[in-house]
């Protein structure tokens, strides 16, 4: 039943990049429909071109809910701790909620490890991506024992996970980082992640690229709600997303972008480390 | 009714009108002649308050026109219509609209902003156009008319103001002789029929002689002649124009009759050569 | 005589009612046009407002939030700004270079296209419609589309942007140039034709000198536009200052000083070339503009 | 006249003419030389020699072939053993259980896929056989954690890419791939399949005539209504969304341009020398124009996104701000060039200042302003495409995202066609309006 | 040497030149006269291949000029120089450059783009200008010269071509009588000294009579007169111009002697009126 019609007039959900804007909108439309029903107000989906679009929406209070990456959450938190709160996190099939940043290069490039990539062009995704920038930016220098800018010939942002994969496959850059759950086989692009999607779509031949680095586990990004929302609205949306896996598995598949064990509650504390890292990177 | 007292206009170091004085007691048709730069235009523009005077007074029915400000000044401008050499119409608007501009001084700003003119004004505008023989062009854009027609529209706009006085600054200088004649005759007729005062700057002596009751001659900003057309001899004209003995009055003529004569003479001469 | 007057009055009545009808019709049209326009504006605004995440009224008070964040951080780190300027200068130069080459190449192509599609000058008069259509299409495809496809074909770098902007420039300037060339005096061309000059000679000696000041003026205006285009294309992946801006602004807090430095550089560049081209165009338009 | 002066007079013009021609020659050479030098600098600065090596012909082939073709996937899930046929591998393009195109025949665990008259690929359980004409039978099969590949000559030819975990066989007729999870065969077809109806629609496969005039296909709906609903709601091509995106782009351009014109008109008077006598005001307003223009729509979009969030309003406001600067400058220049005679004519009737503007100024600047507004409207349609790509709205977003993810080139070409048509249409409409409003009554 | 055979040019339904034929055996100075629209310009333009003919042949030394294409056509154009009523110079370029354009037909495009004219050409250009009395203007822009001077530059350009034939399309129509005389005399001198054929369209009978060896009269596209100046009586002229008995030949005159008379007559008449 409509619970909050008198307190909010509409509810806006922001969608992070990752595929065609159209596909993103389409796979989340079912969630919007459920939300409309549950909240009794119009629910709209927004798919800006990059992470920053959603972050600005959350900061400005024009977007009420989004599923962020850990780093994007940290970015929002650093700018305004009172803007949003994490409520749920996606869990993998094995119950964990972490994934990895994967460094990779073309098989024929002769780059089999980070050390081989010295002097080569290295690609990050979006500056707000955890696996596509923040974590590798911290862990890779430790591993290679040098500054990235000095070690690599050039370090470049491609704009997103998909662009990184395409750029490596095309040889625009020699190596890059993207995300994967690290489960399953490399040949499939692991069980889920940007590589899997690219391989499934036929954009990349997994035989033609190889893994050169894998990060420590990264906490999955949270689903966040705007703090200023009325409590009953928040509760309604938490319930809705948490139960989505049971009420409509197909919809859950689309919203979670793959097979999952569903969403479980999470709090801000899980991201303290990432926030520290991000703060360190900022200064 | 009109009394000009040592009216002076200086543009920087240049004195365009220099202590000009004259008096007009009854509605007359007055021609002002003079060489280019003599100050004719400046004089008229000061009377109609389009240009501010440097010194002197312009009294109309005893009131100093130069002291008027704001609303009173605009009321005066509406009382004293101006006709320009280049017509100064709004070329993209139709003829009637241009004529209706004559009422702007009396109408509220708001109503006119939306082009809302009273119906009786429109009727009157068309009547005036009819009187000037151009009613059939009423709906055309001003720019689509010939020069003579445009000048008649300008006269119609002036009449629309119901002015006490019409000032015309070389109204026929950019017209061919045919059109010039029509326009001058229209002005004369208005003067005679309505009894309005008309002051016209003119370039040509014969026009002044033919249409005016009184002629004022200006030279270098000063009034150097003031008399009847009959008094305007070739000698007087030479003084006004500051010309030497070789001055031929016809050089300024635009009248059709004279022109015909001239052409005939040329033709005669040409045939003699054959 | 009486008869004549009656007819006169009749005619007057006619033109009066005819004019009044005309005025009424015109007022109705203007009124309808106004209504349509206002309706379009109002409903359009409401749609845009509804489809936006944040509403106009709610957003207005916050309009300065973001600029304030940027400015305050940049202010706190004001000492770093000169260093940032220096660091981003190469990217800025790349952006300006992209615009310059694209304008140059585009303008040269535009001259050829314009001459080929101008009546009286065309080398192959029958092909005029063909060249005109080509220009239309070059103008119609947004440069971002061409740039993105070229990035796919030849990788990230300045060249996709150059080609994309040059294609658009050739179409846009070609149309303007052709209008200029249409007004060129054909007498010198005929004079050159009569001595047996080739087409290229006729154009180079007979037409170009006449229209050069105008062309230059348009090309300068275009250069100014192209600097913006080049910056924008950088934003979507073609390198230059736009790329740097995107990365800095996307990161948000922590790099607002960099963002501010880039804003300032870009703004200063645009204003600089804007003023420069205004001044140059002014000179060209008002004499002294000998090439 | 002496001999000396005579000869001097004779030689002098010659020498002077020669010098003159030499000077012109220097200029004629200097300009192209300067351009050439600059281009040479650019040649190296932009690394053109390297570009040739980076040019990817294969990508060009993909792009060109993908724009007018689509592929159908036949997929065997190696865990469940299920075989699925799907156009472009998408869910909405999946053939229903049991249904399949006629080039796929299924018999229990054996699926025969005819890629071309003489090309036959077979799924036989987990094994894949592909009889390549002129080469022979290629067999691939999962063998524990590896894939066993068997070719007629025992070697791995160019058209096969093989590793222990994945095998790809690519011929002109199609592509076969094996991984641990699934085996797939792709067959390519010309055209944009499912453009009108997806497989789930009852109207798929029916000719236009049949739908318009034939018997009712879906008993619940009349053919025209049903066909329209299914077409408009096509879940793969999403015509309704695309149409909205186009509309949103035009909306941003229209609102932004017209809004800017309305704002800039009064400000233009304040920046024109002949209407704003106070230098300080004029200077201030002009700097505001320079600022609005100089910041550029792109940066305005970013600056406004915090306050207004993603959506068309943000783009509109960005265009509005930039164009206020552009229009302000153009309008004030126009106002400085007005014909003063008309104003004087109106003034001489005793008109008030506002009336003077209304009748002396507005009628003469209207056509110029109108043509400037319409010109910018047309050019803003293009800008709105780009701004949409950044602010998250309109056809620009769809296009850039489709290009960035680098699949679905047929959608990319579809969007490009739509954009070009939209711009040409706006161009035509604005040209028509210009003629109508300026030359008309 | 030149032989025109039923040359015809149709513009749509309008026949500008109608089966014109004539033969010239030796370099002569030929005048073509006729009313406006008679087809004079079209005739010359066909000969110089600026306009394509509809029918007929133009044989020069036995070769049909109308069949020439590409390089051969340009070579012919360079052999047959054209002088225009409006001079058709490149106004922004200096005089020498304009004269040097006469060699364009023989020079490579690239060389001319970069102004690479051989030194001897430059010298020759100056010599020609000297001969025509305008060498002191060599460095000026063409547009800075008076009409007569510009036309002499055009003649210089024509001479630069070393043409076998000079075609002049109303070379003096936009010149005052003084300049007209200079230009016609220059053309005549070139004809006499260099022995080049000159065909000139002329507006005025007396010019044709005075300077030409042979006069061709055209009317409505047809050649209606072909004879010596002496044969060109006022009656013949009436036929050419299709005029009635009131035809006065002087109406077409531009000669200085006649003009002075005319002006004097006008003056006399004017003074009589005063
Ligand atoms: N706005 C002005 N600023 C400066 N000087 C002016 C201005 N208007 C007129 N003058 C000067 O004042 C003198 C008189 O000009 P005015 O236009 O009154 O002469 P006029 O008799 O009307 O001549 P014309 O026959 O050429 O119209 C001239 O020397 C003119 O240059
Ligand atoms: N390019 C053209 N297209 C159509 N008709 C033309 C063209 N050029 C000339 N004509 C027509 O051909 C006829 C002859 O024109 P032409 O210019 O040869 O006459 P002309 O004797 O030179 O007259 P003028 O003394 O006016 O120069 C005229 O009726 C003219 O209208
Ligand atoms: Mg005057
Ligand atoms: Mg002619
Ligand atoms: O933040 P990411 O989801 O891109 O790792």
Automatic annotation (TrEMBL), chains B, E:
Keyword Disulfide bond among record annotations: no
Domain ABC transporter, first and last residues per copy: 2-245
Keyword set includes Translocase: yes
Protein name (database record): Phosphate-import ATP-binding protein PhnC
Single GO cellular component term: membrane
CDD domains: ABC_PhnC_transporter
Gene3D superfamilies, per database record: P-loop containing nucleotide triphosphate hydrolases (3.40.50.300)
Leading EC class: hydrolase
Entry keyword set: ATP-binding, Cell inner membrane, Cell membrane, Hydrolase, Membrane, Nucleotide-binding, Translocase, Transport
InterPro entries: AAA+_ATPase, ABC_transporter-like_ATP-bd, ABC_transporter-like_CS, ABC_transpr_PhnC, MetN_ABC_transporter-like, P-loop_NTPase
One MF annotation (Gene Ontology) recorded for this entry: ATP binding
Enzyme Commission number, as recorded: 3.6.3.27
Automatic annotation (TrEMBL), chain C:
Transmembrane segments: 29-48, 96-116, 255-273
InterPro entries recorded: MetI-like, MetI-like_sf, PhnE/PtxC
Keyword match Transmembrane: yes
Domain ABC transmembrane type-1: 92-277
Pfam families on file: BPD_transp_1 (PF00528)
GO cellular component, one term: plasma membrane
Membrane topology, from the record: Multi-pass membrane protein
Cellular location(s): Cell membrane
Xref: Gene3D superfamilies: MetI-like
Record's keyword annotation contains Transport: yes
PROSITE patterns reported for this sequence: ABC_TM1
Main location: membrane
Keywords: Cell membrane, Membrane, Transmembrane, Transmembrane helix, Transport
Similarity comment text for this entry: Belongs to the binding-protein-dependent transport system permease family.
PANTHER family (UniProt xref): ABC TRANSPORT SYSTEM PERMEASE PROTEIN P69 (PTHR30043:SF1), PHOSPHONATES TRANSPORT SYSTEM PERMEASE PROTEIN (PTHR30043)
The protein, known as: Phosphate-import permease protein PhnE
Organism of provenance: Roseivivax jejudonensis
Lineage: Bacteria, Pseudomonadati, Pseudomonadota, Alphaproteobacteria, Rhodobacterales
Automatic annotation (TrEMBL), chain D:
Keyword Isomerase applies: no
GO cellular component, one term: plasma membrane
Keyword field contains Secreted: no
Family annotation (InterPro entries): MetI-like, MetI-like_sf, PhnE/PtxC
Keyword tags: Membrane, Transmembrane, Transmembrane helix, Transport
GO molecular function, one term: ABC-type phosphonate transporter activity
A family per Pfam: BPD_transp_1
All copies of domain ABC transmembrane type-1, residue ranges: 246-430
Compartments reported by the entry: Cell membrane
Major site of localization recorded for this protein: membrane
Taxonomic superkingdom: Bacteria
TM region(s), chain numbering: 27-46, 250-276, 384-406, 412-433
SUPFAM superfamilies to which the protein is assigned, alphabetical: MetI-like (SSF161098)
Membrane topology classification: Multi-pass membrane protein
Family: Belongs to the binding-protein-dependent transport system permease family.
Protein name, UniProt field: Phosphate-import permease protein PhnE
Organism: Roseivivax jejudonensis
């Amino acid at each position: 039943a409509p619970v909050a019609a008198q307190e909010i007039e509409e509810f806006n959900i922001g969608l992070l990049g990752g595929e065609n804007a159209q596909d993103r909108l389409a796979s989340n439309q079912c969630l919007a429909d459920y939300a409309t029903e549950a909240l009794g107000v119009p629910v709209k989906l927004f798919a800006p071109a990059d992470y920053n679009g959603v972050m600005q929406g959350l900061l400005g209070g024009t977007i009420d809910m989004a599923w962020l990456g850990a780093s994007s959450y940290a970015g929002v938190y650093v700018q305004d701790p009172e803007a949003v709160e994490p409520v749920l996190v996606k869990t993998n099939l094995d119950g964990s909620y972490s994934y990895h940043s994967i460094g990779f290069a073309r098989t024929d490039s002769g780059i089999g490890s980070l050390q081989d990539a010295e002097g080569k062009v290295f690609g990050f995704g979006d500056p707000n991506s955890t696996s596509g920038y923040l974590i590798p930016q911290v862990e890779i220098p430790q591993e290679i024992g040098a500054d990235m800018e000095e070690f690599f010939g050039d370090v470049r942002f491609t704009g997103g996970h998909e662009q990184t994969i395409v750029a490596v496959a095309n040889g625009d850059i020699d190596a890059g980082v993207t995300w994967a759950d690290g489960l399953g086989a490399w040949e499939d692009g692991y069980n889920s992640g940007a590589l899997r999607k690219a391989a499934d779509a036929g954009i990349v031949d997994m035989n033609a690229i190889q893994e050169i680095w894998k990060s420590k586990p990264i906490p999955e990004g949270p689903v966040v709600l705007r703090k200023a929302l009325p409590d009953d609205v928040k509760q309604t949306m938490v319930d809705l997303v948490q139960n989505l896996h049971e009420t409509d598995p197909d919809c859950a598949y689309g919203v979670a972008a793959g097979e999952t064990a569903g969403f479980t509650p999470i709090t801000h504390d899980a991201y303290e480390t990432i926030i520290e890292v991000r703060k360190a990177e900022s200064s | 009714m009109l009394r000009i007292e040592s009216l002076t206009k200086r543009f920087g170091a240049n004195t365009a009108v220099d202590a000009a004085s004259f008096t007009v007691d009854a509605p007359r048709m007055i021609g002002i002649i003079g060489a280019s730069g003599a100050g004719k235009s400046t004089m008229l523009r000061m009377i109609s308050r389009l240009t501010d005077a440097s010194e002197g007074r312009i009294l109309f029915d005893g009131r100093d026109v130069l002291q008027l400000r704001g609303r009173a000044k605009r009321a005066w401008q509406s009382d004293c219509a101006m006709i320009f050499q280049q017509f100064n119409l709004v070329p993209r608007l139709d003829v009637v609209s241009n004529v209706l501009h004559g009422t702007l001084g009396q109408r509220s700003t708001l109503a006119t902003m939306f082009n809302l003119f009273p119906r009786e004004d429109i009727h009157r505008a068309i009547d005036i156009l009819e009187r000037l023989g151009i009613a059939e062009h009423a709906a055309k854009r001003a720019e689509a008319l010939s020069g003579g027609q445009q000048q008649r529209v300008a006269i119609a706009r002036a009449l629309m103001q119901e002015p006490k006085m019409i000032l015309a600054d070389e109204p026929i200088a950019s017209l061919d002789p045919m059109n010039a004649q029509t326009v001058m005759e229209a002005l004369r007729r208005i003067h005679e029929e309505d009894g309005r005062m008309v002051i016209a700057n003119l370039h040509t002596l014969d026009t002044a002689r033919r249409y005016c009751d009184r002629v004022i001659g200006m030279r270098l900003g000063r009034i150097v002649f003031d008399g009847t057309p009959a008094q305007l001899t070739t000698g007087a004209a030479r003084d006004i124009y500051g010309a030497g003995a070789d001055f031929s009055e016809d050089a300024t003529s635009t009248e059709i009759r004279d022109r015909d004569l001239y052409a005939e003479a040329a033709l005669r001469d040409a045939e003699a050569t054959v | 005589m009486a008869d004549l007057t009656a007819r006169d009055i009749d005619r007057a009545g006619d033109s009066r009612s005819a004019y009044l009808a005309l005025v009424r019709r015109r007022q109705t049209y203007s009124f309808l046009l106004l209504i349509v326009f206002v309706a379009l504006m109002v409903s359009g605004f409401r749609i845009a407002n509804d489809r936006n995440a944040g509403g106009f009224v709610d957003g207005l008070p916050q309009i300065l939030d973001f600029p304030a964040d940027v400015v305050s951080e940049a202010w706190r780190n004001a000492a770093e700004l000169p260093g940032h300027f220096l660091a981003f200068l190469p990217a800025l130069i790349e952006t300006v270079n992209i615009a310059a080459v694209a304008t140059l190449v585009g303008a040269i192509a535009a001259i050829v296209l314009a001459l080929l599609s101008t009546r009286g000058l065309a080398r192959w008069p029958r092909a005029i419609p063909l060249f005109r259509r080509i220009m239309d299409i070059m103008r119609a495809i947004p440069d971002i589309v061409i740039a993105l496809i070229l990035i796919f074909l030849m990788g990230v770098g300045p060249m996709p942007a150059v080609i994309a902007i040059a294609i658009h420039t050739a179409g846009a300037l070609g149309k303007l140039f052709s209008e200029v060339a249409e007004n060129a005096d054909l007498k010198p061309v005929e004079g050159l034709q009569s001595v047996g000059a080739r087409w290229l000679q006729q154009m180079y000696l007979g037409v170009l000198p006449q229209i050069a000041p105008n062309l230059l003026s348009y090309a300068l205006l275009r250069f100014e536009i192209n600097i913006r285009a080049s910056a924008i294309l950088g934003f979507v992946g073609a390198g230059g200052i736009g790329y740097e801006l995107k990365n800095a602004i996307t990161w948000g807090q922590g790099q607002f000083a960099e963002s501010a430095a880039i804003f300032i550089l870009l703004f200063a560049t645009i204003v600089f070339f804007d003023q420069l081209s205004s001044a140059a165009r002014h000179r060209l338009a008002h004499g002294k503009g000998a090439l | 006249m002496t001999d000396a002066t005579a000869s001097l007079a004779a030689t002098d013009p010659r020498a002077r003419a020669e010098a003159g021609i030499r000077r012109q020659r220097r200029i004629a050479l200097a300009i192209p030389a300067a351009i050439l030098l600059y281009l040479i600098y650019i040649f190296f600065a932009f690394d053109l020699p390297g570009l040739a090596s980076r040019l990817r012909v294969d990508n060009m082939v993909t792009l060109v072939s993908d724009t007018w073709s689509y592929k159908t996937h036949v997929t065997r899930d190696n865990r469940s053993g299920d075989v699925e046929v799907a156009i472009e591998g998408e869910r909405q393009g999946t053939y229903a259980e049991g249904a399949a195109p006629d080039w796929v025949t299924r018999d229990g665990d054996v699926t025969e896929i005819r890629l071309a008259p003489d090309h036959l690929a077979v799924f036989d359980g987990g094994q894949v056989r592909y009889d390549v004409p002129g080469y022979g039978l290629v067999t691939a099969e999962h063998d524990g954690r590896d894939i066993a590949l068997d070719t007629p000559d025992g070697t791995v030819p160019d058209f096969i890419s093989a590793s222990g975990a994945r095998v790809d066989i690519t011929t002109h007729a199609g592509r076969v791939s094996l991984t641990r999870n699934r085996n797939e065969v792709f067959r390519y077809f010309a055209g944009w399949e499912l453009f009108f109806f997806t497989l789930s629609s009852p109207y798929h496969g029916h000719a236009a005539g049949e739908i318009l005039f034939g018997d009712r296909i879906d008993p619940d709906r009349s053919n025209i209504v049903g066909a329209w609903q299914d077409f408009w709601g096509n879940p793969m091509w999403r015509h309704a969304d695309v149409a909205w995106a186009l509309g949103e782009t035009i909306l941003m351009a229209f609102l932004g341009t017209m809004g800017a014109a309305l704002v800039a008109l009064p400000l233009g008077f304040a920046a024109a020398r002949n209407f704003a006598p106070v230098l300080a005001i004029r200077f201030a307003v002009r700097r505001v124009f320079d600022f609005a223009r100089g910041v550029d729509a792109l940066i305005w979009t970013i600056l406004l996104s915090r306050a207004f969030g993603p959506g068309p309003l943000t783009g509109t406001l960005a265009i509005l701000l930039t164009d206020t600067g552009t229009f302000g400058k153009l309008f004030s220049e126009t106002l400085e060039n007005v014909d003063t005679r008309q104003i004087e004519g109106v003034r001489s009737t005793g008109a008030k200042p506002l009336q003077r503007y209304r009748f002396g100024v507005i009628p003469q600047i209207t056509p110029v302003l109108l043509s400037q507004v319409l010109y910018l409207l047309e050019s803003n349609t293009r800008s709105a495409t780009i701004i949409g790509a950044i602010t998250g709205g309109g056809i620009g977003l769809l296009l850039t995202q489709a290009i960035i993810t680098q699949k679905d080139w047929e959608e990319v070409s579809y969007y490009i066609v739509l954009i070009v048509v939209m711009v040409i249409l706006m161009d035509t409409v604005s040209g028509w309006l210009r003629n109508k409003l300026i030359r008309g009554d």
